[in-house]
Fold these 2 entries.
Entry 1:
Amino acid sequence: QKEVEQNSGPLSVPEGAIASLNCTYSDRGSQSFFWYRQYSGKSPELIMFIYSNGDKEDGRFTAQLNKASQYVSLLIRDSQPSDSATYLCAVSLSGGSYIPTFGRGTSLIVHP
Amino acid sequence: NAGVTQTPKFQVLKTGQSMTLQCAQDMNHNSMYWYRQDPGMGLRLIYYSASEGTTDKGEVPNGYNVSRLNKREFSLRLESAAPSQTSVYFCASRSADYQPQHFGDGTRLSIL
């Protein structure tokens, strides 16, 4: 069974620190990788997507993809209390219509 | 710029009642999706429509039906609601394979 795994957390970091969120996937043919942020009671909001090995930076966020090791990570620099949310990893698995499969999410708490 | 619009936002039903959840997108996206989200379970795909005129089952289709009315609209119907269908339902759309999904605000459905 093709799976996307995330540590449920919570991951607690102090304000100003780097938060590192990890996601592993089982399907080596996966092509597209997405990170969503979801505040409590709200809908998922796209933060970043990455297709190629390496790093992709957008402001305080960096997505890192390593297809050989089958993991994708999200780094949040200078973490703020407003970053406190659940972060969902989604992976478009090979085959079919490349529908993204979601991990269960990691809860991040940034404390002042 | 509305994006993905879901109605209603909240609904309470009695067991055995039927209802239709509505979803419309104004981004000219080809693909549309219905997910449910339960505590600790992440987002699970109910049905999807890869293009106008087509629909397919996802991971948890039992008890649901869908209609892709046109390119903009994708509805989800519960014919005979059960307490196990109490959940938050999200509609999403995307323009093409490999692209990220965009989510509506969700419908919070309680079945008594």
Entry 2:
Amino acid sequence: SQQGEEDPQALSIQEGENATMNCSYKTSINNLQWYRQNSGRGLVHLILIRSNEREKHSGRLRVTLDTSKKSSSLLITASRAADTASYFCATDKTGTYKYIFGTGTRLKVLA
Amino acid sequence: NAGVTQTPKFQVLKTGQSMTLQCAQDMNHEYMSWYRQDPGMGLRLIHYSVGAGITDQGEVPNGYNVSRSTTEDFPLRLLSAAPSQTSVYFCASSPRGLGGGRTDTQYFGPGTRLTVL
């Protein structure tokens, strides 16, 4: 079963708006990562947050991690049409080298 | 650096045929892995390796074999292709692995689109 589950499954917003997507997971982790995938292409790493961190920023991206709730959120501010993609969270279960991906959020940014 | 490369980009097989998907990285990464992605779904881990000579199973290993004789290469073998193995296959590498403790950022290849008839 998937370790991570993203919510919502799909999101459609206007350019300039903020997009928020959430990820829940089931076990203790070392870190949580967010990836972007443009249609039919490989995944691109966006940001990594470690289990002892609560918030991290990278450009227009803001990631939060709540280990007590086993959840994370990805905020994209001032979205652009080029942000249209699928976004996945990935976690590595403590004590293993296995990355487990969620099912993804499909984001569509309308110009 | 070429990063992570995968060949072929596309492949069509008949049921029962075998083939090897190639994956190579030139970043001296210890950790490498194979995933499959089915339509509308996330990636599922097939096999992974934490260093040359060491491999282990992921979530969906049945029907696939791997080996890791060098740091650079991590081929995935389909023993007897089945229609259920129609998917897009991604290889990834990461700098963490043997002795590195925690896992780290993964770098993905462009994928191999496999169809089994």
